DUF423 domain-containing protein (Paenibacillus antarcticus), 120 residues
Amino acid sequence: MNTLLLLGSILMFLAVALGAFGAHALKKKISADMMKVYETGIQYHIAHALGLLILGLLAESSSNASLIVMAGWFLFAGIILFSGSLYALSLSGIRKLGAITPLGGVAFLIGWAMVFISLI
């Protein structure tokens, strides 16, 4: 079984569920600024979960499949660190959680750089 496809589909499910939760349950419970933070988390979560699905398909036909899979794990870490910290920040209001967000951004960058390297 392709782990990246499995992980990507689970993370897409969670992104849709969290997006619906934000749109329906949070809209009147958190400030507009915190809602924007939450929505940014959703946006990056969806984009990179779709990226995991694409990488899962790419890994099946790539001669550098191990590098593609490693890139996928960096995207997964990015979703946890970047989007997760934004979810936690928006729900708790603890601004210090924002310090974790750039680590997720770096994980995204590393993952996509690894995809680039695997293709050249």
